[in-house]
Design a protein that fits this description.
alpha+beta, 2 domains
């Protein structure tokens, strides 16, 4: 019976793989449960951040990444110009739910947030810096850059009331407006959260905060629902640790800061209540004889890659990729992994882009292996757990999961004017089928197609839908179509990366003579490149549709049609389950 059930499952996945209509789209009845329709909140599993110190990169870049893989969040981007303000001007603070979206007919998210006034106004800075942002602030004109990952916290300190005025999105934007360095950004965010409270739409959060010299892990938590500004106590608890310059680090939705040494001010920063609050909440007992450990106190996670069947594999996989010589096995508790590590080699920006696409290939956690990947080795079928017969089964939650809104890779580089040194590499949609495009820190506008779009309404005006079109047509015959996508990535993405030194030199020379002219050159270059890439992806989506139409291969050269190749394992299962009989030999 078990054998028959496994064969049935194999055929079911195979049918899905070749695009048959097994999903009716109708309501689910009691006797037809949806095993993969999860009711749980995936927010705590929805972002990966990679950090690279300047001495750990091949060109001296300080790099951060952010895989914004919420799956239903707003994907639009904006450029906010620098501005001067009068002494009496105020900066309004809005409640911004990082997961919130609005139907296009209502308006763009970054206009609609003005309806979510928190009631707080703070003194405006005399001068605010220009910056690029999506769901969070990503880089300002000083090359201060950020990547985000939700890490959660112990339940008792969550604060979902509107009393705290700051959430993580607003903190990053104010930091972008006011910070000259990563340390500035951390102090600004920490002080504002302490004074005015942090929480409401967010719980524990991590930010990678970088500049051309260094990168920090900044983690912040609420302090419970009873806090008020009148209490005189800090409205948040936070801690920050610097990644050593020759190290790399990662945050896969898990707190990463362990024991702290606040006397070492070059590597640690924290709110004044960082330990006392834990004592007051009975989360830490100083008499127990153990040192204070941030992550074990405020966001403990008793998990491992092996113990969760890969649902918490990202931390292990990162260390497996960057420092395999350390021999850290997948059974290692995630809490026991080091904060950072000196990698086995130095990394280029292309290496980091490729790492954001990793799907645990070649390991026991590879989601394309065996039955799960179907006949076309598709790694994207089950990026979440499923339920069957009242039991929940975990699947691998890899770095390159297929629900990304977009991915950013930031480069902050010394030795160049800030306008030229900073780059936000942006890829819309799922990493494996998308393409990174450069947005220099000195640009003065971004493409209109980056500023619009919605999950529920297809639009040719939105760049994201070009990449989603390619992704959709790749899933049908994944192991074949992904090769077409990789050729396009090689042409457009790798070429842009290799072109960067020439663009840098031209821009820096122009900037030295005339700053406005240098910035206009960078703007024109980024706009033109983005237009070419987006158009190329619209064309690629059409070509994939034609090439794999009706589950055949239509070869343009020679105008031939050939059947899709199916693996022998699938054909054997088909013969066995359907009890197919071979044709008799004709003599």
């Amino acid at each position: 019976m078990k054998k028959r059930l496994s064969l049935l499952a194999l055929l079911a996945v195979a049918v899905l793989a070749v695009g048959a209509s097994v999903w009716s789209g109708g309501p689910q009845t009691a006797h037809q449960p949806c095993p993969t329709c999860l009711s749980g909140d995936l927010r705590s599993e929805a972002c990966t951040v990679i950090m690279v110190g300047r001495e750990a990169s091949t060109d001296g870049s300080v790099m951060t990444t952010h895989t914004c893989d919420c799956g239903v969040c707003d994907w639009t981007f904006r450029y906010v110009p620098a501005a001067d303000h009068k002494p009496e001007d105020k900066r309004r603070i809005y409640h911004i739910d990082q997961f919130g979206t609005f139907p296009p007919e209502i308006g763009l998210k970054w206009e609609k947030i003005k309806d979510q006034f928190s009631g707080l106004e703070i003194p405006e800075a005399a001068h605010t810096y220009g910056y690029i942002h999506g769901d969070f602030g990503y880089m300002n004109e000083n090359q201060v850059s950020i990547g985000e990952s939700t890490i959660g916290c112990v339940r008792k300190i969550e604060n979902q009331t509107p009393t705290p005025k700051f959430d993580i999105t607003t903190l990053t934007m104010v930091a972008m407006e006011r910070a000259k360095t990563a340390r500035d950004a951390i102090r600004i965010m920490g002080e504002l959260a302490e004074k005015h409270g942090y929480g409401f739409t967010d719980s524990g959060e991590m930010l990678a905060v970088a500049d051309p010299k260094e990168v920090w892990v900044f983690e912040i938590m609420p302090i419970g629902p009873l806090w008020t500004p009148q209490s005189g106590k800090p409205g948040a608890v936070w801690c920050a640790e610097r990644v050593p310059d020759d190290h790399v680090s990662v945050c896969p939705n898990e707190s990463r800061i362990g024991e702290i040494d606040l006397a070492n001010k070059d590597f640690y920063m924290a709110s004044p209540n960082v330990i006392q609050f834990a004592i007051d909440q009975k989360l830490f007992d100083p008499k127990a004889g153990k040192p204070f450990n941030w992550k074990r106190t405020y966001s403990p996670q008793d998990v491992s890659a092996a113990g969760t069947n890969g649902s918490r594999v990202r931390l292990w996989r990162f260390f497996n990729l960057v420092a395999s010589s350390k021999n850290l096995g997948p059974e290692t508790p995630n809490m026991d992994f080091p904060f950072s590590v000196k990698a086995d080699k130095k990394f280029s920006v292309q290496d980091i882009m490729d790492m954001t696409r990793d799907k645990c290939e070649g390991t026991v956690f590879d989601p394309a292996r065996g039955l799960q990947g179907g006949p076309f080795a598709n790694p994207n079928y089950l990026p979440y757990p499923f339920k069957l017969d009242g039991k929940t089964y975990n699947t691998s939650r890899v770095i390159g999961v297929n629900r990304a809104e977009y991915v950013t890779v930031t480069q902050a580089r010394s030795g160049l004017p800030d306008a030229v040194g900073g780059i936000v590499w942006l890829a819309f949609g799922a990493q494996d089928t998308s393409c990174f495009m450069p947005l220099y820190a000195g640009i003065t506008e971004i493409p209109r197609s980056f500023q619009v779009g919605d999950h529920w309404e297809y639009s040719r005006d939105s760049a994201r839908w070009a990449f989603d079109t390619v992704d959709f047509h790749t899933q049908v015959a994944y192991n074949l179509a992904i090769q077409d996508v990789r050729e396009a990535q090689k042409k457009w993405e790798r070429t842009a990366v290799s072109r960067t030194p020439d663009v840098d030199k031209t821009a820096a020379d122009l900037y030295k003579k005339d700053r406005a002219l240098g910035r206009q050159y960078l703007t024109d270059y980024c706009l033109n490149n983005a237009s070419l890439v987006v158009n190329a992806w619209w064309d690629l989506g059409t070509r994939l549709l034609v090439k794999y139409n009706h589950l055949w291969i239509y070869e343009e050269k020679g105008r031939k049609r050939n059947p899709l190749p199916l693996p022998e394992s699938y054909l054997r299962a088909l013969v066995e389950y359907n009890k197919l009989k071979p044709m008799e030999d004709k003599k």
